Q: What sequence folds into this?
């Protein structure tokens, strides 16, 4: 988030990595697995946006779980802090070390094997360092779908996706990352290996430990392997671009789309005119799918694993009938169904290029929040009012995974205002947005997590009882506070 | 499980419920909320099968969360053990007190209000004491589906369903109970109330606490309210009864059914000829859907929220085409699609009456286990072999939610053998089945939980590391061990 100040640094106790410790690390992971050169460390200690510059005594890159276990045990015995890291593509700094970090970064990047694929059982066993896109491709080669899909998929790693419970554009249908998992292997804070790598859809034998490690951002243990669920590959996909009356129309329309599509709504993305125009301005080759002067659009995609039958009705027939009904009801003002792969790609490109376009456009503020799906229209209206009251010339660029209740509530600074000036308003606007979200029973971080950047906001907005439970769990499972210390929770 | 001996009782420390404590309980919940008469206590201290007879000093029935909180705080301060209880319909004794329990039973039965229903947002907020069937009916009145569906639905309560992460016949499509939840309110061991009652599909703000309380069987806290997810009500349902070649054919068929049905497979239940015949023998009014002499059958149901369109293809057309393909492939030997509601009800009645019929048939043994879906055929074959090696005349009655990898691996004793004699074989057979399940990476309790009855089996089959994590969490969140002590885990 440009313009956001880092929270005050928490105390991160770590014993120093002595040369004796370095020797022992090298004995575990080999020369290939140890990076100590300052220049070579840079990509691991800096976040990809370049806004966080951390430090680490060494980058340690184990090749197998036993090495992860041995490294963690060594750190545990010596009180050395560990920052677990996958693709280091997170938006909140969860995988990037703090500037005063004296311990190691433990990168899972060398553990990148698909260990097993079971198309009949719809499951795949993988190592934590597999690139997300590689897993999508592997599933596709077996006529299956691994549905996790997000902007960083070409470089993020599945271990990080699971540790942060990643979201993306297919959550509406398939759920968050945690819903795509059958089993996990995790290295605990003391170096022990928890083998929960079971390919079971049902297992009621005590506490569900896997859900505790997912979303914990590496503060409770290190995910080393996972059994992932697969789905049938989509065969009949229909993508449409709709000019809609307002956000309320989007909610009502989506509510009816589930039944009309045979529960085959894949994505439903709310996009403002402002976002669309910004992409058209900055991203070469994008085209406006619909000449309309309305303020709100929906990118609606239905997909089925059943190929379109000769003479039968497919997704596009059902979508056509549905859109006719919605036009009739006054929710949809105009609409176009993609007739070619290129048209569909163009629609998706607009949606996916908003972040890139906004970086070109200039400084801005963005909030990844969620409320109950049916309260989105109320949130957008009240949110605009609250933010514009603070900075009347700020320009709203809202966008959202509306079916998940998740709005990327974004603003570009007033024309001509530089980052420094905008930053002066940032704290007040952030507070206003998060106060509103909280008063509506919402979440101040729908899918991006807490990491470093929202440390203080979590502390401010979550109840004392809730923070107490989290701290109790953290202290119980990581008594020496060596697992990604200073992230997610303030313990003090 | 008839014939199974109870585990050795763990030590369950509890201060006595003195008359002074009783007075304070009465002051919190009123006369209506307190049961001390021995006769009136019976339904709360005995399990519904009549196999567990426990004790409690009092049954406490709060009417609101604040009363639950006050009762728990009082117990916490005085070191009094609490058995939380919903409908007391569990199969493992999780909700029934141990015979030496000296504390209270805390029954949620008076907290039975539906607090809010949001059909557009597909969510419903309810109190823990709501009867499951009431919630199904409430959803249906709003043209929505709450998919949790199981034998005890007329008397089990949602709080118990969530605490045990209940399964049932719709898990294949909608997931276990934990997948049907957006938010929870929980009273913790010290009486504090955790308000996690958020209606959010996405919320990445720290550890996911709700998944910790679900499946914990009341040993970490008491679920008092929940926000449940809803789905569109089914409008086009097709039920079929298939004679199939063998369990392998069932797996392969199901693997293809997902795509062929547009991902609309609702249920896929494997039923043996032995189970079918037993039901036909004992349950009046049931009819054999198919005259066939094969050993294995599938009850396959596809359902869509989209009403069948005039001139369009509906579920039954797709099912017909699919069954023709499967006959061609040799997996299906014969099949019938229900043409009337009565025919469909008859098929379901056979499936749902197996438990009742087996009680009439005589003494038996049953194991609720799961393995990876694709390994079910191997499990069934090896399991038969292992059990028949111990008691050659035992009669297998297998049955299963095959799409979940969950087999109810059941046997009736040899003809003429009484319960006492069968019980002598029980320990060896249980060990053989659970050894096999474990060697195949499966679960010794797929959906019924641990409670009292599987306490020793969990201890035996789960790794020391896994048990250690569970105990660490239990001790951290319930340091005085007052929440359902002696269930799920042995702490000693």
A:
């Amino acid at each position: 988030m440009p313009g956001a100040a880092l929270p005050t640094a928490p105390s991160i106790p770590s014993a120093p990595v002595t040369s004796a410790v370095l020797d022992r690390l090298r004995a575990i992971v080999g020369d290939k697995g140890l990076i100590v050169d300052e220049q070579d460390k840079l990509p691991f200690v800096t976040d990809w946006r370049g806004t966080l510059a951390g430090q680490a005594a060494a980058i340690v890159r184990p090749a197998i779980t036993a090495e992860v276990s041995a490294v963690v045990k060594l750190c545990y015995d010596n009180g050395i802090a560990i920052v677990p890291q996958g693709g280091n593509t997170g938006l909140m700094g969860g995988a990037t070390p703090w500037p005063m970090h004296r311990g190691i970064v433990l990168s899972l990047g060398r553990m990148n094997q698909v260990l097993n694929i079971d198309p009949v059982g719809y499951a795949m066993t993988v190592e934590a360092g597999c690139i997300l896109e590689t897993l999508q491709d592997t599933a596709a080669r077996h006529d299956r779908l691994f549905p996790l899909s997000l902007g960083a998929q070409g470089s993020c790693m599945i271990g990080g996706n699971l540790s942060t419970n990643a979201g993306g554009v297919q959550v509406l249908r398939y759920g968050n990352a945690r819903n795509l998992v059958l089993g996990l292997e995790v290295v605990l804070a003391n170096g022990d290996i928890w083998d929960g790598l079971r390919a079971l859809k049902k297992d009621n034998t005590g506490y569900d430990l896997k859900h505790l490690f997912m979303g914990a951002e590496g503060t409770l243990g290190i995910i080393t392997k996972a059994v992932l669920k697969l789905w049938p590959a989509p065969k009949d996909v229909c993508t449409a671009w709709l000019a809609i009356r307002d956000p309320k129309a989007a909610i009502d329309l989506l509510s009816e789309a589930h039944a009309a599509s045979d529960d085959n709504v894949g994505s439903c993305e709310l996009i403002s005119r402002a976002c669309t125009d910004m992409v058209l301005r900055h991203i070469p080759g994008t085209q406006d799918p619909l000449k309309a002067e309305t303020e709100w659009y929906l990118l609606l995609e239905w997909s089925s694993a059943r190929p379109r039958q000769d003479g039968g009705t497919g997704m596009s027939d059902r979508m056509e009938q549905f859109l006719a009904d919605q036009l009739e009801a006054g929710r949809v003002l105009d609409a176009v169904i993609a007739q070619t792969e290129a048209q569909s790609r163009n629609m998706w490109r607009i949606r996916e290029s908003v972040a890139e376009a906004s970086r070109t456009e200039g400084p801005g503020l963005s909030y990844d929040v969620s409320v109950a799906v049916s309260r989105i229209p109320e949130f957008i209206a009240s949110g605009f009012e609250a933010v514009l009251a603070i900075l009347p010339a700020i320009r709203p660029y809202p966008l959202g995974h509306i079916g998940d209740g998740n709005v990327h509530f974004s603003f570009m600074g007033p024309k001509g205002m530089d980052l420094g000036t905008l930053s002066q308003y940032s704290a007040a606007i952030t507070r206003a947005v998060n106060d509103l979200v909280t008063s509506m029973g919402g979440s101040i971080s729908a899918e991006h997590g807490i990491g470093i950047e929202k440390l203080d906001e979590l502390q401010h907005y979550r109840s004392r009882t809730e923070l107490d439970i989290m701290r109790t769990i953290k202290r119980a499972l990581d008594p020496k506070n060596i697992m990604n210390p200073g992230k997610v929770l303030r313990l003090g």
